[in-house]
Amino acid sequence: MTNMDSDSDDEIPTLVKPEANAEVGEQDDEVPTLIASSDEKPTSKVPITIVTGYLGAGKTTLLNYILTEQHGKKIAVILNEFGDSIDIEKQLTVSDQNSTEAKPVDFVPLANGCICCSVKDVGVAAIENLIEYGGTFDYILLETTGLADPGNIAPLFWLDDGLGSSIFLDGIVTLVDAKNVLRSLDEGEGDEPEKLEERRHEDGHGHQGPLLTTAHLQISHADVILINKTDLVLKEELQKVVDRIQSINRLAKIKTTTKSQVPQLEGLILDLHAYDEVTDADLKFASKGHSHLDPTISTSTIIFPPLSPAQVDNFDLFLRTILWEDDLPDNKTHDIFEIHRLKGRIPVKDGKTLLVQGVRNIYDMKEARTSDGANSADEAKLVLIGRGVDQPAFRESLIATLEAKR
Ligand SMILES: Nc1nc2c(ncn2[C@@H]2O[C@H](COP(=O)(O)OP(=O)(O)OP(=O)(O)O)[C@@H](O)[C@H]2O)c(=O)[nH]1
Ligand SMILES: [Zn+2]
Questions:
Q1: Closest residue (by CA) to atom 24 of ligand 1?
Q2: Start and end of every CobW C-terminal domain (predicted)?
């Protein structure tokens, strides 16, 4: 669906209609509008999966595939021009002011119970309307533009304010094009040159750091990465791609696909729970080691002893300082860094386990339900994904902060 991504503002959005179900949409130019009565408010939050990926990686192919599969869910698919953070903020404000006079959104019902909605300019407001008027579906899939930075979009659905009251972020799925991804990572091919220049930063010694491309941002924020178009590469080439992607993001599940055909939807696209649960298994692979295959972004794991209850506040201070101030507490000297994603499981000696989640400068810390609790003898693990996170100073600063009397 490359025509969705053109820049012309007056272009009429195209609706996705899987060929197999072509008869369902009936008249092509008459789009049905679903309007539910106002008392049909959804009672629980609807999960949303963000589908991101570089230009032409296979996002629309994936959504079409899902819309034709039998999965027993009513899925609302939104094709959107989500991209620029500034636009999104504008849209949020507009939708807040107009929330009482929101207009219905147009949907196309599909054979397997799914509905499809194509939104070009309304963005967040459209999703609110979808919830308000639709109410009859149990999942939302949102395709972003190829140049979108998921780090700007994810917080909109994760936080309690804004949209978080009716929707919760289930996960971010990133598609990469096996044939082109290495070139995108190395050269920023397809990226806007000004954006690349903006994202370059100095390494703290006055040297320009390596290129941070859109492909990096989409991989570093992903919970699931589908390496698509495997038919276009040789086995050895594919292995190189897998290795490179793993070196950037060791938390994400990685699967290889052709024509975006995922082996199963559950746990790969739907119901990831990537922003509420942090299981031991989630962190296991990440903490097994790391490599420096990518000069720009890497995954790093800090392992430390369980906290005493009195150290919890100090741990929180450490998180606030690294995420909000891009700095390490206790004046620890360090190179410049930038954290994109963070996950942790922190046992406390009173028997609780703290679960930590972060995207950019937003984080959430809560207690694990006792049923999934690791016992307090386990080590604590904090996994960081980003630029410059692979510095010994992180662990040193954390230990010093935990031990400090405040
Ligand atoms: N050879 C090959 N082609 C594929 C595969 N998956 C998708 N394609 C083709 O690649 C092209 C782009 O796929 P889309 O699904 O439109 O990609 P997209 O990510 O939605 O693209 P944009 O919205 O333009 O960013 C289409 O012509 C697809 O048919 C694959 O596994 N192998
Ligand atoms: Zn597309």
A1: 2
A2: 338-400
